[in-house]
Amino acid sequence: MSPRPIVVVGAGLSGLATAVLLAQRGRRVVVLERSATAGGRARSPAVGPLPMNLGAHALYRGGVAERTLRACGVAPRGFSPPLDGMVLTRNGEVLPAPTGTASLLWSRWLPFAAKASLVRALASLGREARRVDAGLSWGDWLEQQPSPQAASVLSMLARVATYADAPAQLAAAPVLAQLERAVGRGVTYVDGGWEVLVHALLERARVLGVEVRLSAPVDEVSEDGRSVQLTGGAALDADATVLAVPLRVASELTHTPSVRAFAAAALPSRVASWDAVVSRLPNPARRVAQGLETPTYFSVHSPVKAEPLRVHAHWVLRPGEKGAAVLPALQRWLDVVQPGLSACVVAERSLPELQVADAMPTTQDTLRPTVQLGAALYAAAEYAQPAAFLLDAALGAAQSVVQSLTSAALRRSA
């Protein structure tokens, strides 16, 4: 076994999970984080009296992210949003959201042909994801559906599941696979925010002997991953380097042409987000809302009897759309879903241009890098997983990196 450590750049969830999984396999690991605190996008800065995620976060039950966290010895605790608290809006009207086949068939706002089309589509999401051509866009797939009303419902569900509103660019296959996960498994809202997961992974890393260096910025990583240049002049020899940082940062740290080319071409997903602590809900029965004709979402991220309450709302931005321009429309939509909510606000935070993911899976993904960027250079980040979204993509990349490094070590020792 090499005396040199594996260096992980970035102490967000994917970087910490990578470090823990490697340490569990007996590897020496050093984590370098430029900020004074760990977590990255998984931090939960306080809004008034409560810690709150940066925008709405959900963990897919039974998904890659949850399985990876459990493999690290971290058991996420939380709750699922109640199905009977879901509504949708259409042309300013609030309607009960169907939460299963029976409620869908009994709904009055869809004609029977649209209901039948929607039931068939939802039942065949997995098969469709495997069947469709890689070059087919999500928008083109929606155009092929026999019912425009059913297609609009599927579009709404996909926006929520992917945090993306770019039907012309998104590849259909990964969107369909993500929809299958969302519809079939449901989600967990983590108690206390995702920072709880960050702290749990940090503790596991320290127990396993991982060296976590905060306020340790990196200037450059060699193209082969064997050397890491720290800010201030010091260099660190590495057995391998894992980049668990945003795509833009990865492109600045390494001279790898493929990373820089993809960073220039990648299509990020963004939302205009509003996070708030409220004393109560004007309409307690409405805990989750989605816009059918607008890319809007609202959810309560506190248990039913908790006070005060965490609420999140966002507008999914199209490519080039400006978040500041749509925040007023988001607030008007909230007045429809929860009339009088503004009078209940204890504290609030607006994030007009919240970047959720660095690179949506598109039909033009030929430049996307794999998890192995060089001889001993790896990426544990969502942009290295072309067929997945969000934290499932990021922690799926972490698992792939660990498997590759383990295989490489076995080959060297053979």
Summarize, please.
The chain is built from 13 helices and 21 strands. It has 414 residues and is an alpha+beta fold.
Describe this entry's structure for a reader.
- The chain is of the alpha+beta class and 414 residues long.
- It has 3 domains: 6-42 and 193-266 and 366-413, 3-Layer(bba) Sandwich (FAD/NAD(P)-binding domain), CATH 3.50.50; 111-175, no CATH class; 269-357, Alpha-Beta Plaits (2-Layer Sandwich), CATH 3.30.70.
- 36% of the residues lie in helices and 23% in strands.
- The protein contains 13 helices and 21 strands.
- It has helices at residues 13-24, 64-71, 101-106, 112-123, 125-131, 138-143, 148-162, 172-185, 195-207, 247-253, 257-265, 323-337, 390-413, and strands at 6-9, 29-32, 46-47, 50-51, 59-60, 78-79, 86-90, 93-96, 187-190, 211-213, 218-221, 227-230, 235-237, 240-243, 269-278, 288-291, 296-300, 309-317, 345-357, 372-374, 377-379.
- It has a 7-stranded mixed sheet, with helices on both faces. It has a 6-stranded mixed sheet with strand order 10-2-1-14-21-20, with helices on one face. Strands 5-9-6 form a 3-stranded antiparallel sheet.
- The longest helix has 24 residues, at 390-413.
- It is globular and about 65 Å long.
- The mean pLDDT is 93.
